[in-house]
Q: What sequence folds into this?
């Protein structure tokens, strides 16, 4: 058993992207792992930028880059034929390739041959090769926080990153633990938990968050939702394996039904917290809710603040939007830490 | 996407077994799929029997056998070197090999070569090769019953088989849906749900129990337990994907802690039923508990009857031991069918 570990620092590949929304991975790496990104590399037809230095693979290698990360995801998640000469150039320059695309890098013959020729690695973050033991439920030392959600795709990764950063800023020893491909690229290691064989979900989560010193916090990126008809199994295995001391419930203001499945209403925040705590007690009887992380990106400032205040009063826990930060977020951080 | 389908009828292989407890698979197939077993085949040193005709692979093939099933599981689940000539003989006689062992049949060079030479298949039931779509939560026609449990290994498969048989005896159209290797061998098809990639647990369960006529019952073999620290993810994905109309809660009399994890107390039957129904409502708001299946094999008759009666009164649902059958079991069957 071993956790995937990526060669850093990175050179960020933007392909021929002309829409910033296609480059969420690159932007996320710039924002959350900027100290481990030496620059960006793009085809001449690309019109977007991360703002980092534009470098050739050779120049990036000279500045210490260890891998080229594919930081764009066009519709379908396919490696574009137009990228292949550039990707080959990176391998030739001595960089490994890191990808979260649907296409397996090894299934691209040019890349497979070049990797072999230049002794480089092709790393598909989406497909873990590690095997994990079955979970044991054994209590581990150290503290753990897990971000959970009423649904998918509403800010569980962002919330975990923001909390881990805030913990560190307060001098608290903490590690962001990634469970999805973008998180793994940001962290440089982790487990794509939804790609693990079902029998080993909890075991993988246990391996991801091992024994640590008593005052250390693992801040774990949640996946899916206990209320999602397709992904609830992943979420429950992750919850039981992580054994969180603290959960933070993530939600998006105004979202009332499951993303892409409008016939499934979302639970109320209160129900979501109650059900999650009830199930989490199975492996950690002392689990508590640190608060709510509310994605208010669709709301103007005043409305967002009013909503956060209302939820906080109704639920009796801090409620903040980590993107907006401020006193409410600091209150959430304090509540999570129990300080 | 496709569900694994096994070539039947079977010839049951007993290896060199001298202890009937090592031959649970063969005995289960005799009991539950006897109409699809042409006989047994064993090495001269074996001392046990299923009671079926002892046949050579060639004779079995002449009687219509399509595959040899490895019906014994010595400690470790390893294909024994002493078996290999006999397994090769079966391939040469025109039988496919079906195995639920840990050893991959393809990893045994003699068998791999013989399968290729004689044009036969090596089928490892433990390792599904099918891929499944992500679950959709779409409601499907027909009725579904899922056996669930307070723990692993206490009778969920047996209960599902007994209920499917009882439904058929009452003239109700029903199909046993297998989710584990022994169940798959008995049924001849199914999905080893704990071997599916985590993201697709619910999707696989949906595929296993497709649209059917309104009065048809799928009786689905449960796996793991929502209360098991290692396997709860499998159980929740199976629950949400199956969308059961009826659950039957399985338990073993006297078991108070998780099998092999004595520090984890089991929930009460009432708590187990309440939590399961609460979570199951997410994909089927009309789900109900048909009753309790209690494994009373450790108790004498009078004590077992008294315990079944007590649980039934306390929980307000029928409680029966399917192995003991009788009026209590018929009452459970009626409650499941709603008749």
A:
């Amino acid at each position: 058993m071993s956790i995937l570990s990526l060669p850093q620092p990175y050179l960020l590949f933007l392909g021929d992207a002309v829409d910033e929304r296609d480059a969420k991975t690159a932007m996320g790496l710039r924002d959350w792992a900027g100290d481990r990104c030496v620059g960006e590399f793009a085809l001449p037809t690309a019109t977007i930028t991360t703002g980092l230095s534009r470098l050739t693979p050779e120049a990036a290698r000279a500045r210490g880059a260890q891998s080229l990360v594919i930081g764009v995801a066009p519709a379908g998640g396919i490696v574009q034929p137009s990228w292949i000469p550039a990707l080959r150039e990176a391998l030739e320059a001595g960089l490994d390739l890191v990808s979260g695309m649907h296409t397996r890098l090894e299934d691209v013959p040019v890349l497979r041959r070049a990797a072999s020729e230049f002794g480089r690695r092709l790393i598909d973050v989406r497909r873990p090769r590690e095997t994990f033991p079955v979970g044991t439920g054994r209590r581990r030392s150290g503290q753990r926080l897990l971000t959970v959600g009423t649904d998918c795709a509403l800010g569980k990764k962002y919330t975990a990153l923001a909390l881990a950063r805030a913990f560190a800023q307060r001098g608290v020893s903490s590690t962001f633990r990634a469970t999805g491909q973008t998180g793994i690229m940001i962290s440089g290691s982790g487990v794509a938990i939804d790609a693990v064989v079902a029998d080993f979900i909890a075991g993988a989560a246990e391996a991801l968050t091992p024994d640590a010193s008593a005052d250390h916090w693992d801040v774990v990126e949640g996946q899916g939702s206990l209320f999602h008809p397709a992904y609830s199994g992943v979420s429950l295995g992750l919850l039981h394996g992580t054994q969180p001391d603290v959960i933070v419930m993530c939600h998006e203001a105004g979202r009332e039904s499951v993303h892409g499945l409008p016939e499934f209403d979302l639970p109320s925040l209160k129900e979501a917290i109650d059900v999650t705590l009830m199930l989490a007690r199975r492996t950690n009887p002392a689990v508590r809710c640190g608060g709510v992380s509310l994605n208010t990106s669709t709301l103007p400032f005043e409305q967002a603040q009013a909503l956060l205040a209302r939820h906080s009063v109704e639920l009796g826990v801090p409620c903040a939007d980590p993107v907006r930060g401020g006193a409410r977020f600091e209150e959430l951080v304090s509540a999570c830490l129990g300080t």
Notes: The mean pLDDT of chain A is 95. Chain A has two domains: 4-124, 143-337. The first strand of chain A starts at residue 4 and ends at 5. Residues 301-315 of chain A form the longest helix (15 residues).
